[in-house]
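=== Structural record ===
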Amino acid sequence: MAESRSRDNIFVTGFSGTGKTTTGKEAARLLGWRFVDTDDEIVASAGKAIEDIFSQDGEPAFRKLESEALVAVAKNSRQVISTGGGVIMDEANRRVMESNGVVVLLEGRPETILQRLEAQQTEDFDGITTRPMLHSQDALDRIRALKEQRQFNYTLAHWTVHTDHLTPQEAASEVARGWKLASSRIPEPTQTDPNGDLAAEVRTSSGNYPLWVGWGLVGELGERIKQVLDPPVAYMISDGGLYLQAHLAQVSTEAAGIPTHQFFIPPGEQNKTLETAQHIYTWLAEHKAERGHLIIALGGGVVGDLAGYVAATYLRGMPFAQVPTSMLAMMDASIGGKTAVDLPQGKNLVGAFYQPKFVLSDVSTLKSLPQRELTSGWAEALKHGLILDEDLLSTFENQSEAILALESEIATDVIRRSAAIKANIVSQDERETLGIRVLLNYGHTIGHAIESSTGYGSYLHGEAVSIGMMGAAYIGEALGMMSSEEVARQRAILKAYGLPLCAEGMDVEAVRNAMMSDKKVASGSIRWVLLDGIGNAVTRNDVPQELVLETLRRLSDCTCSC
């Protein structure tokens, strides 16, 4: 990705059923480019249908025609090219695509793929015949097996779009966005003093550890590990949307002489479960992991929480490192040693305090986040300003345009400052026993309840926290702790960063019940974090139930909340 490309092309690859044709056509329409399907080019060249090529000439003949068609098509520009799912398995094909454009992988869960192929009931010749496969009892297993064979090569794509829950139009928008980001030249990491990007040193009972925040740090992961410890083997846990970042990290660790194995979980809070932890335990056991080996959590808050919980519990504790790639994780979840998995009854109900050996945040990785996830991430940063640092909040207000554009200098600065706030609080109150660390939960009582009551599928964490902060502000205003002007200021800055202020039509009773399962409930009373003015967070456990109910109703009606 670092080299300049001479032509504007997008090569769309992926397994059957991930939407290559529909998404490709929509992306071409969006960009005003030509859409090309390599299968159509093969048919035109051979003068016969693809199924006849397979049956009469065999798969090797088809693959030869496929490569020839790819070379011919790549000579042109301003095209969205849908390729067969097997194209990326050939190294020569990959070189053709990488030299002439951006390779975009469309991903999908095997269950989604099977559902789509059953709906289509057509034949696809990515190396399998769909109709017979679908008619067999083990169709899902066959999809999983073939997809697993190709998965490593799929990870070599420049950009990945998960299409399970996207419309063709939404997927096409992500394809176009990926092309714009991946086709631009990536700046080389700046050469700095090894600790020049040290945001803070987190002080804990189990030892101190560095918190690094900088631009382009993933490529330095191996040498940063060597600064802290010297593990003979590493186990990297990540999610299926971060293959490129995980690949770059693995290259760095192995260059430093640390053999590194990788385990990918499906993205999403719904996968932060004991069942997923069990799969990782089994994987570690199969690889004969030892206490002196290192677990690396590379990903967002879900990956960090889950990998940290596994590290805390497997072999009664293995060292682990946090390499957060989401805004929320960089400024909050990766710092402080909170590890956990969710239960159906609530979020983070099973877990442990278990500190990492270091946290390394590469702000440049945020460039690859989907826009909604990036927007969600600002909630925790703004929260830090609201609860403790009005000067930081003012920076977010005054430089919002540059910050939202992720201009490297200012974005790194505000994220470093925000992360340092979290690190300082953790250092003062590691296990949340002194009433200091709980202040970080501003907006989380309602936010967690919204996430839990909606099955972690309707709102991203930052979105729910934003709504929760507005609920806390309304409560604070009703109790005379915040002025109407301060509530309006909070509302304005959340809105400026694209965060939601209400949850239209939410189930008030379900949210209310979920709040009573929150970890901050003691003796039946909720310990609320409220603002006694901007920059001054306090706790209260005397908020009347009638006011809570009134606030939830207000949040559920966007006509009166915004």
Q: What stands out?
A: Residues 1-6, 122-133, 185-194 have pLDDT under 50 and may be disordered. The chain has three domains: 9-182, 198-369, 434-561. The first helix runs from residue 20 to 31.
